[in-house]
Amino acid sequence: MSENTQKPAAKTGAKPAAKRAPAKSARRRSREAALQGLYQWLLTGDEVGAIDAHTREQEGFGKIDKAHYDALLNGCITEAADLDAVLARHVDRKTTELSPIEHGVLMIGAYELKHCVDIPYRVAINEAVELAKSFGGTDGHKYVNGVLDRAAADLRPQEVAANKR
């Protein structure tokens, strides 16, 4: 055999090493924790303080971006009516009829689009899509992507227009 041809790998019976998923960023973890809290709030209507206390007791809470988590959880609950009004223009039913996971994900995405201008709009949408893939229904991420893409045009018109050029 020439040196450019590779010999077939010997069968050793060992399985190839599984690829490790990249470590989650502190921001992604904060979105996941906020989603858990929003899910609880959407289902139970519990006080934000009780939800926050419960969420902070969860394993791995120390690895999150606490400031971003606080902004998302408190901001989404405080501004729920405003966020739902933004989303209502782009959803095909009342936000109260959405699954609580998709509703929470959309609230987080809309909140980030509205208030976290340090996060590019495409990143905010992608992060919401990833949340929906991890926690939502089979095709929920597609719905989230479409709704937030249209909401971004309302909430960040200059950034969206500049990106389309």
Structural account:
- There is one protein chain.
- By secondary structure, this protein is mainly alpha-helical.
- The chain has helices spanning 26-44, 48-56, 66-78, 80-88, 100-115, 121-135, 140-155, 157-164.
- The termini are far apart.
Straight-line distance between termini: 53 Å
Number of helices: 8
For the residues shown, what is the average pLDDT? Answer: 90
Total strands: the figure is: 0
Residues in β-strands, percent? under 5%
- Strand/helix succession: HHHHHHHH
Main sheet summary:
none
Cα radius of gyration in angstroms = 20 Å
Give a brief outline of the structure:
The chain is mostly helical and 165 residues long.
Brief descriptors of the model:
single chain; 165 residues; mainly alpha; 8 helices; NusB-like_sf; NusB_fam; RNA-binding; NusB_RsmB_TIM44
Compile the SSE list and pairings.
Blueprint (H helix, E strand, L loop, with lengths): L25 H19 L3 H9 L9 H13 L1 H9 L11 H16 L5 H15 L4 H16 L1 H8 L1
